[in-house]
Design a protein that fits this description.
Radius of gyration: 26 Å
CATH superfamily of the largest domain: Zn peptidases
Pfam family, one: M20_dimer
Bound molecules: zinc ion
Family: Belongs to the peptidase M20A family.
InterPro entries: Bact_exopeptidase_dim_dom (IPR036264), Pept_M20_carboxypep (IPR017141), Pept_M20A (IPR047177), Peptidase_M20 (IPR002933), Peptidase_M20_dimer (IPR011650)
Keywords: Hydrolase, Membrane, Metal-binding, Protease, Transmembrane, Transmembrane helix, Zinc
Strand order of the largest sheet: 1-2-6-3-7-20
Number of domains: 3
Number of strands: 21
Protein name: Peptidase M20 dimerisation domain-containing protein
Length: 640
């Protein structure tokens, strides 16, 4: 039975050489972290000597107000490259991205599990040829392995085997364009057309995820042309079925990477906080960069965790018959009661130290308080220049965030007044998506069923969701004398699994004459472990983000002169952790690294048409992504 993984360890490893920004905080946070955050920082070495009983660690977990990570100074790479200022490069890059879009690497739900038996994967052959042709320098130095036919795993071997590899990832496939939406596109969906005036590249995949993949290749090609020879091994992996679950692509790439790098016992440099084989992994996702709090704060939101997932189905079976002599409630009526009950009782929003969104909110609260102390920003901000339609943290809420006993009220307020995006990173969502039942107007339905999708909050478990749904369904089942059973992978693997169902079944001797109701967990995935924001690796990510995206107060000052003017740290950008409400290929990769980041540095105010009509990419934003990858490789090419 998968549950939250916690092992009583804290993130300050013995023998670690933390960055200065981490070191500054250690005195204050070592003990609270060991005591308080073990639950949400799984599998991190160190502090084992404390040997806390699990219950003791869990008992205090929600009593510590997390601290916003100290914002590290912006860090320029050893070679600063600014492709976004080079118009020739922008034209060439737009041509590359356009060409990638024109190769229709579309994933369909009904594709064969064996890619060699599926014709519709064939465009990937052209895509691979395009990559080899377009990025010859990188292909001349990296070893390429094709995994499960179309998965790509490149290794650019570093000179220092004591440094763990870093993994950069982007997927090759795109979602289909439904025939009936083609006429609504401003440009043909697979044209890859570039409008120089607006700076937009159009077409399916231009912002999900061929831009990220091309950015990685462009950055690596540039590095090779600069004569860069990595000390740290660099990996590039690319799945080909991310949009339909990732089983064939990421699933097999994971196996290959574990096989190749998994036994890292000898690889450790005494500088590591974990025995997982990769130093860090970066892939698509997150909310990117942008401005929030009515224009008062510039933020970056790499996602450090993903919510869990569960599809559940309720099936009711009753006796049929002629509808001229019906019972008071048909199968459809009883199912409706259950669904109404479910919607009347949504999951509670919650803020806890196991959810990094709390840290994010504290970061915003600190920054707003500081701004007001300095007399900047005004009461609640009046800068309308670049408004993000999000929840504004007023003073009352900021106070609540610093009082653990008031987190439930704060969570409810955010859920009520915030956007849906803000709400569902602190709440398990529930959506009744499919309903069937009945065949004829004059016949009683013999069965009715509904399928419900849940996205499980990072501080909850699939089992908690199953239990709650089961409790509500059982209530209606009792009312109508239905016999309840629960089925699914979660229940099947649990020794005490059937207990609640038995508890709720009609007592012996009493006829369950009303019929049967069955609750099935069709598929489920637990929330991912949450990557730490206090690690030196996250610190390096933040330093690099703060260099490439310094914020409005610092824009234009981070070119050749990287000292940073007007701000001691060289950047106004607040790097703060987020959570993904959806899932990516990375949900499979928890065994590969402790530091897993979903970060695609586009502005989160830019509607780029992902998965819908008029998908497009701003070529300058794309260039900044490429620049960011280039800077991250250089900044992490040594002990971190
Ligand atoms: Zn994607």
């Amino acid at each position: 039975m998968p549950t939250k993984n916690h092992n009583g360890r804290c993130p300050t490893a013995g023998g670690a050489r933390p960055q200065a920004w981490v070191a500054r905080r250690l005195a204050f946070v070592v003990l609270p972290l060991c005591l308080g955050l073990t639950f949400w920082l799984p599998n991190i070495g160190g502090c084992q000597a404390l040997n806390l009983p699990r219950d003791a660690a869990a008992a205090v977990v929600d009593d510590e107000v997390p601290k916003c990570p100290v914002q590290p100074p912006a860090r320029a790479p050893s070679v600063v490259w600014q492709p976004e200022t080079n118009s020739t490069w922008l034209d060439e890059s737009a041509a590359r991205l356009g060409a990638a879009v024109r190769i229709r690497t579309v994933s369909y739900d009904d594709m064969d599990l064996d890619p060699t038996r599926e014709e519709r994967f064939k465009p990937l052959v052209d895509f691979h040829a395009f990559l080899a042709e377009t990025f010859p320098l990188f292909h001349s130095v990296a070893n390429l392995t094709k995994v499960n036919t179309y998965g790509l795993l490149y290794e650019w071997t570093g000179s220092d085997p004591s440094l763990k590899p870093a993994l950069y990832q982007g997927h090759q496939d795109v979602v289909p364009v439904p025939e009936d939406t083609v006429s609504r596109w401003s440009h043909e969906p697979f044209s890859g057309e570039y409008d120089r005036e607006t700076g937009l590249v159009w077409g399916r995949g231009s912002s999900d995820d061929k831009n990220m993949l091309i950015s990685i290749f462009e950055a690596f090609e540039q590095l090779q042309s600069e004569g860069f020879r990595p000390r740290r091994t660099i990996l590039l992996s690319s799945g080909f079925d991310e949009e339909i679950g990732g089983q064939r692509g990421a699933g097999t790439l994971l196996v290959e990477m574990l096989r190749r790098y998994g036994n890292s016992g000898e690889r450790g440099n005494g500088n590591s906080t974990t025995d997982k084989p990769l130093e860090f992994i970066i892939d698509e996702g997150g909310l990117g960069i942008g401005t929030t709090q009515q224009g008062r704060l510039d933020v970056a939101l790499p996602a450090v965790g993903e919510k869990g997932y569960a599809d559940m189905r309720i099936d009711i079976e009753t006796e049929g018959g002629h509808s001229s002599i019906p019972p008071d409630h048909t199968a459809i009526g009883m199912l409706s009661e259950m669904l109404v009950d479910l919607e009347k009782n949504p999951f509670e929003p919650s803020l806890s130290t196991r959810n990094p969104v709390l840290t994010h909110l504290i970061c915003l609260a600190d920054a707003l308080d500081e701004q007001e102390l300095r007399g900047g920003g005004g009461a609640d901000g009046d800068d309308q220049a670049e408004t993000y339609e999000g929840f504004v943290l007023d003073r009352a809420l900021r106070k609540q965030l610093r009082r653990p006993d008031q987190w439930p009220q704060a969570a409810r307020r955010i859920a009520k007044d915030g956007t849906r995006t803000e709400r569902f990173v602190i709440q398990t969502s529930q959506a009744i998506d499919v309903i069937t039942g009945g065949v004829k107007a004059n016949a009683l339905p013999e069965s009715a069923s509904a399928t419900i999708n849940y996205r499980v909050s990072v501080d909850a478990t699939v089992q908690q969701v199953v239990d709650k749904v089961e409790g509500l369904v059982a209530r209606v089942a009792r009312r109508h004398n239905l016999e309840l059973s629960v089925d699914g992978p979660e229940k099947a693997n649990s020794s005490d699994a059937s207990e609640p169902a038995r508890r709720d079944a009609p007592s012996e001797g009493k006829q369950a004459s009303g019929g049967k109701v069955k609750l099935t967990v069709i598929q489920s995935t637990e929330p991912t472990p949450v990557s730490p924001v206090t690690s030196s690796q996250f610190g390096m990510l933040a330093s690099t983000i703060r260099h490439v995206f310094p914020g409005r107060g610092q824009e234009g000052q981070n070119g050749a002169d990287e000292k940073g003017k007007g701000n001691a740290t060289g950047s106004d950008r607040i790097v703060t952790p987020g959570v993904m409400a959806g899932n990516t290929d990375l949900r499979r990769y928890s065994d590969l690294s402790t530091n897993i980041w979903r970060f695609h540095p586009n502005t989160f105010m830019m509607n780029s048409g992902k998965h819908t009509v008029d998908e497009r990419m701003d070529i300058r934003a794309h260039a900044k992504t490429t620049r960011f990858i280039h800077a991250l490789v250089r900044n992490t090419d040594g002990p971190i």
